[in-house]
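Severity: low
Component: inverse-folding endpoint
Summary: output formatting inconsistent between runs
Steps to reproduce: submit the following structure tokens with default settings.
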């Protein structure tokens, strides 16, 4: 059991900082002066976050340790969260740093090692599995915290796409629940819709069942926390040859794809994704029932954060593959070496995923919401040829 602090709040966050502002003394000339003004709100009570954590674990070995297992469970609670909160307009500032609320993380980790074969042919297997359950316990008197994207979103650049809410996971994706495309006038008349909607436009769920589509129908659409992550590796050796294979994977995380939102709407004047071939075109060509009708200016909530742009980011990746050769001592003696190993390594050779972006692991956002991807730079595929030489 232990208690730790987090001091990562930036320098001088508790002080009222000053900055330069230029202004003109005489409106008829361009001469200007400089004066100092307060640029941030002071908070003398600001302090570190505090995390209380306990762990309980067990190590087990079987068959003369041919098989070994480690289990570790943990519970963490962080109080006095460091967050930027909105301030009343009469303060002269829009936001300020404060200690509010608490959050909980709990889960367990499993490590498994097996020495399958020994002798001339050696085969070892390692497997790890972990899961974490995150929950916002308290936000003080601030209520929900809405998170806006740091990336451009066209006409809705300031639209909130994530939320921090008590009882939910941190940085949950927030928006409208997309159902599909209106396929007929009868369907359009039957279900709640926006005033300008037409056949072929998107249909959204009336979450609060009041018969009206408005901001109150926004709901949590998922989050970027995986249900579990895992890794699996095998090491083989036969005489002088070695082969190491490592897979990693994640299941259950979701991503808000800013990329798909920009390229997943048919504008008519720009390139689009190939899936746009399934868009609604007419009553006789209704498409796949998912993609909107073609339009130069998307209407309604087509551009707004919704489940239409939320994607499964589960994946399985061949993280590392290494083939090596160790030279015999007789050869080393002739070359006056103590050791010589040649190897070739491939990293990130392939990834199995349904995610349409470059990489399901990347994120273009930071802070409270990690689940936004605006084509973040992917993990690179690389090949390395090397030698380990010992004299």
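Observed output (run 2 of 3):
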């Amino acid at each position: 059991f232990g208690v730790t602090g987090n001091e990562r709040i930036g320098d001088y966050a508790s002080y009222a900082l000053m900055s330069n502002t230029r202004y003109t003394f005489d409106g008829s000339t361009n001469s200007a002066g400089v004066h100092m003004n307060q640029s941030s709100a002071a908070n003398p009570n600001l302090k570190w976050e505090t995390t209380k954590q306990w762990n309980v674990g067990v190590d087990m070995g079987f068959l003369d340790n041919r098989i070994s297992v480690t289990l570790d469970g943990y519970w963490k609670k962080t109080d006095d969260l460091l967050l930027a909160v909105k301030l009343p307009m009469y303060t002269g500032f829009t936001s300020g740093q404060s200690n509010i609320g608490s959050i909980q993380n709990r889960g367990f980790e499993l490590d498994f090692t097996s020495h399958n074969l020994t002798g001339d042919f050696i085969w070892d297997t390692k497997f790890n599995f972990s899961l974490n359950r995150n929950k916002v316990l308290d936000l003080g008197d601030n209520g929900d915290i809405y998170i806006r994207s740091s990336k451009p979103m066209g006409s809705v650049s300031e639209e909130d796409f994530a939320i921090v809410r008590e009882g939910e996971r941190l940085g949950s994706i927030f928006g409208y629940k997309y159902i599909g495309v209106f396929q007929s006038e009868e369907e359009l008349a039957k279900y709640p819709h926006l005033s300008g909607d037409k056949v072929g436009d998107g249909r959204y769920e009336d979450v609060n069942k009041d018969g009206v589509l408005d901001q109150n129908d926004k709901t949590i659409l998922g989050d970027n926390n995986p249900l579990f992550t895992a890794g699996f590796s095998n090491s083989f050796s036969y005489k002088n040859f070695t082969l190491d294979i490592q897979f990693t994977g994640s299941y259950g995380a979701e991503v808000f794809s800013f990329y798909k939102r920009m390229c997943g709407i048919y504008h008519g004047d720009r390139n689009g994704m190939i899936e746009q071939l399934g868009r609604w075109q007419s009553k006789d060509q209704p498409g796949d029932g998912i993609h909107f009708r073609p339009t130069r200016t998307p209407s309604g909530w087509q551009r707004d954060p919704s489940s239409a742009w939320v994607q499964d980011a589960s994946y399985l990746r061949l993280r590392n593959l290494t083939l090596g050769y160790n030279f015999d001592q007789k050869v080393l003696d002739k070359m006056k070496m103590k050791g010589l190993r040649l190897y070739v390594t491939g990293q990130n050779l392939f990834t199995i995923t349904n995610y349409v972006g470059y990489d399901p692991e990347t994120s273009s956002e930071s802070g409270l919401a990690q689940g936004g991807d605006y084509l973040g730079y992917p993990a690179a595929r690389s090949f390395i040829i090397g030698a380990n030489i010992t004299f």
